[in-house]
Amino acid sequence: VGQVGGFGGMVRIPDGMRRPTLVLSTDGVGTKVLVALQAGRFDTVGEDLVNHGVNDILAHGAAPIAFMDYIAGSGLGVEQIAGIVEGIARGCRAHGMALAGGETAQMPGLYQPGTYDLAGTIIGIVEEDAALHGERIAPGDVLLGYASTGLHTNGYTLARRIVFERMGLGLEAQLGGTGRTVAAALLAVHRSYFRSVTPVLPRLHGLAHITGGGIAGNLVRILPLGSEAVVDPESWEVPPLFLTLQRAGEVSTEEMREVFNLGVGLIAVLPPEAVPAAQAAAAADGVATWPMGEIRRGQRAVRFAHP
């Protein structure tokens, strides 16, 4: 709606909704941009930004309808900015939403020449009575983990310190047992779970996007009072990337759980009878899933069953 170059972006609310409710989220990609700068890649972090936002509003059952970006830096060339925007546009096209506008700010004196930061705001929509808040979560529900593609967009300050300073690796070096170069492992695009989850949204009791704070820090955000989430850390194989970082950085298991997603990008909370349908929907989208714990009566908290 409207014209390119206007002072504000416009987007229509889809027809046929009874009580349309907007869901908004703003985020960035953290110091992953520093790895992208080193590698001379500018499009992947743009796609990361969109997918991160999609997952955040998906946690409330919302579908994306519009996105706006903010790029701030100093001395960025036209090709660099175009690369970032292309990644953002690619992410928007993949989800059928409008890139409704944005801002590019060149701020010499605030940013070092050639550096930048990236943020975005996503707008989604959901029927008010279909929104997920976690209040339906109950004892006996299953925790279903969805595989991540890697670090996604969190933990890069620690990961960069381990890989570049402690291990002394370059971008084209092989990274431990990952079978990939440092650049490929660290710049793997943040996975969107929209198509994996949308077919079964009505059957879910809650969704947690596993970002900064790890599994416990994000799963607890959707738990109602009187519900304890018990996670079985032996229910999945932690990917080689995280094992390499832990060994090389001599990082404790406790800190690993606080900083990284450990291979789990999303957790659905659902009744046992809905698990097969949820796993089938994810498999159709090429995403691995596995039951990784359960909800029990107890204090509102997340507990790992084993140290």
* Number of helical segments with 4 or more residues: 10
CATH superfamily of the largest domain: PurM-like C-terminal domain
Estimate percent helicity.
25-40%
The average pLDDT is 95
List keywords for this structure.
alpha+beta; 60s Ribosomal Protein L30, Chain: A; 2 domains; six-stranded mixed sheet; 10 strands
Describe the structure.
This protein is of the alpha+beta class. The protein has 2 domains: 20-130, PurM-like, N-terminal domain (60s Ribosomal Protein L30, Chain: A, 2-Layer Sandwich); 142-304, Alpha-Beta Complex (Phosphoribosyl-aminoimidazole Synthetase, Chain A, domain 2). The protein is 31% helix and 25% strand. It has 10 helices and 10 strands. The strands form 2 sheets. It has a 6-stranded mixed β-sheet. It has a 4-stranded mixed β-sheet with strand order 1-4-2-3, covered by helices on one side. The N and C termini lie far apart (54 Å). 41% of the residues are buried.
Topology:
Layout: E1 20-28, H1 32-39, H2 43-58, E2 63-73, H3 78-94, E3 98-106, E4 116-127, E5 142-147, H4 156-166, H5 182-186, H6 194-197, E6 206-209, H7 214-219, E7 227-231, H8 240-249, H9 253-259, E8 264-270, H10 275-284, E9 289-297, E10 301-304
Parallel strand pairs: 2-3, 7-10
Antiparallel strand pairs: 1-4, 2-4, 5-8, 5-9, 6-8, 7-9
Helix pairs in contact: 2-3
